Amino acid sequence: ETKLDVSGAPRRFEPLMEHRARTRHAIASGLREALARRQFILHYQPLMDLSTERVTGFEALIRWNHPERGMIPPMAFIPVAEERGMISAIGEWVLRAACVEAAGWPASMTVAVNVAVAQFANGRLASIVRDALAASGLAGSRLEIEITESLALAQTEAVRAQIEAIRAMGVRIAVDDFGTGYSSLAQLRNLPFDRLKIDRSFVRELPAGLESLAIIRAVAELGSALGLQITAEGVETEEQRDGLKAMGCTAAQGFYYGRPEPAASVPGMMVRLGGA
Ligand code: C2E
Ligand code: MG
Ligand code: MG
Ligand code: MG
Predict the structure, then answer these.
(1) Distances in whole angstroms, Cα of residue 91 to Cα of each of 61, 84, 137, 200
(2) Which atom of ligand 1 is nearest to the CA of 253?
(3) Which of 42, 51, 86, 249 maximizes the CB count within 10 A of its CB?
(4) Distances (CA, A) of 141 to 117, 132, 213
(5) Is the CB of 78 under 6 A from ligand 1?
(6) 200-228 residue pLDDT tens
(7) Distances (CA, A) of 132 to 88, 140, 226
(8) Residues, CB within 5 angstroms of ligand 2 (ion)
(9) For ligand 1, is residue 264 a contact (CB within 6 Å)?
């Protein structure tokens, strides 16, 4: 097999680059089969109300249960799926599966589903959400869609109309990983969101990081003034929990409460975290 070096890069870097390209290629071709062979599964991580310290729902997080490579985390294949135009099909499966599983939980429990920017591109997302709710019987008020900050800011009419159509079903919209992009709270003022999820990179610096403290406090104060729920992501210690609550965060998620676990573990987590 002949290798062409079109980049002119030093040859000593080639093995690593080839390895990466091969890995991405293997992932991309594997993804096509994974859906058909039902190799994706959802794990669920508890979402806590900080005022009651009880679980209110779960975030669905995809994993690829690969026959040879074991459990592959989303960051290893979601970007490839986006790049190769496969994210809409995978995302539709996630929505349907999460709604079906959540429909079996107590009616007070919500489910949060991550949606990639590219899933808004073909204009079908609202009808996919409607179908997933209808097929599962899940009330729209029990579903939350998590979108990224970059999408939150891409205020095209098309995106905005889809978000409004989804919200009209009673579904809530959360802005995920908030603080990692380039938005300001002022920009979010007129947009149709229900929740900000403060990125783990800020929470990780607590309790010592003074800049993160100031940012979290400002987000919590202004966010709640705008009528938004404020979730802190990545809460790992009791000390962080106490600080976040004192700063006005209304909800929390993190290893301190529970790691993402398979659907079969949800009933046990609800008992342990005061939700059932
Ligand atoms: P995310 O939506 O911000 O999800 C939270 C991630 O942080 C999860 O990683 C979770 O396991 C991890 N996490 C939660 N609490 C803690 C903590 O206390 N400490 C630490 N160190 N980590 C914590 P995971 O499951 O690997 O997912 C990574 C990302 O992949 C997600 O970030 C989300 O952006 C994306 N993702 C996951 N499932 C889906 C999906 O179904 N569709 C799409 N489009 N993206 C998904
Ligand atoms: Mg999320
Ligand atoms: Mg997040
Ligand atoms: Mg995050």
Answers:
(1) 11, 13, 19, 23
(2) 15
(3) 249
(4) 22, 13, 32
(5) yes
(6) 999 999 988 888 999 999 999 988 888 99
(7) 14, 10, 30
(8) 114, 146, 176
(9) no
**pLDDT per residue over 17-26, tens digit each?**
677 777 778 7
Distance 100 CA to ligand 1 centre (A): 20
Measured distance CA(75)–CA(203) in Å, rounded: 20
In this predicted model, which residue has the larger pLDDT, 6 or 265?
Answer: 265
Alpha carbons 224 and 193: distance in angstroms, whole number: 12
> Long-range CB contacts (< 8 A, 24+ apart) of 213-221?
213/243, 213/247, 215/179, 216/244, 216/247, 216/249, 217/247, 217/248, 218/185, 219/178, 219/179, 219/185, 220/247, 220/248, 220/249, 221/248
pLDDT of residue 184: 67
Average pLDDT over the chain, rounded to whole?
A: 90
Give the C-alpha separation, 12 to 32, whole Å.
Answer: 33
ipTM summary value = 0.98
pLDDT for 2 equals: 41
What's the one-letter identity of residue 73?
A: P
Structure tokens at 39: 């190799």
Closest-CA residue to 188 (of 177, 178, 202): 178
Query: Are the beta carbons of 213 and 231 closer than 8 angstroms?
Result: no
